[in-house]
Amino acid sequence: MPIIEMHMVEGRTAEQKSRVAAAVTAAVCQSLECAAETVRILITEHSGDEFYVAGMNMAQRAAKQKEQAQ
Predict the structure, then answer these.
(1) 40-46/3-9 β-pairing
(2) Dist. CA 22–CA 14, nearest whole Å
(3) Model confidence, pTM
(4) For every one of its 70 residues, what pLDDT tens digit does the chain have, with 9 covering 90 and above?
(5) What ranges in the chain are assigned the alpha helix state H?
(6) Fewer CB within 10 A of the terminal residue: the chain, N end or C end?
(7) Looking at the annotation, which residues are catalytic?
(8) What proportions of the chain, in percent to the nearest 5, are helix, strand and coil?
(9) Residue 56: closest CA among 44, 69, 65, 43
(10) What is the C-alpha R_g of the chain?
(11) Distance separating alpha carbons of residues 58 and 62, to the nearest angstrom
């Protein structure tokens, strides 16, 4: 039973999460040759101040990108 964990910043709609879950399920089924009923997907959402890339949270990254664009 494949279990896939997805972590993302808050803000996506239920429809978007359903679409990505369906696409990931299809890819896992094709790659592992397993039934969709065996695939589990866990989506965990994080606020922007809990999600870091290169040591900066989302607000810090946005400020840096704005500064670089000037």
Answers:
(1) parallel
(2) 12
(3) 0.80
(4) 999 999 999 999 999 999 999 999 999 999 999 999 999 999 999 998 998 999 999 999 999 999 999 8
(5) 14-32, 58-69
(6) C
(7) 2
(8) 50, 25, 25
(9) 65
(10) 16
(11) 6
